[in-house]
Model the fold of this input.
Amino acid sequence: MTARPIRAKVLKIQHLTRDIREMTLEMLEPSALVFRPGQSIAVTVPDPNSDLPLLRYFSLASPPRSSRHLVLLLNSHDHGKGSKFLLEREPGAELQVAGPYGSFILHQEIERELLFIGTGTGIAPLWSMLATLLEEPSSQSMTLLWGLRSEVDRYYLEELEVWKATHSNFSYILTLSQPSSGWQGKRGRVTDLVQERSNVKHVSAYVCGNRSMVKEVTELLTQKGAGAIYRERHADST
Done:
């Protein structure tokens, strides 16, 4: 699939938490983007120190059926040039983007259980994958393990509960690394949840988050004999 230049505009920005922003882009030209769940787009960022613009890549949280409206997840604590540029845009602002990019995509492995593992905004490509899979009737087991810092950092909880209630083959576990004393759920890092899983030989795992988490989870799953491991590392902020 050949990436091509795209004109888009910021349609809306929603504050999901004190730090997380959900940005919806509307396609202008062309009017739709064909992509696979898990892929990303490149945003053109002006560089005041060069005549050449920068390209910064962001995973799409929206499923492919949302071909006209593309959803990105941004963290206001991310001081990278791409995030900073986008967070300064207001609704109506036009952007130049390109895509789709990336090989972190769903694979047709209906005989395996699916395990999605993410931290922070690493949920974005996993969300696109899950939203796509849950659109169709299926008995394939799907589990999401998601690590966040504290209660105030949680989002998409209503959507997760709806998925859990309407799809018997879907489950999720949310763990907090720095919860309050009153937190009744799982405590610790997402790697702890992976460590707890005893049998992953018939599992296909999709992992996305910071580099150290992806490395550690990949090593754990490999040691446990996972059937397949697909991963997407979030680059350091630049």
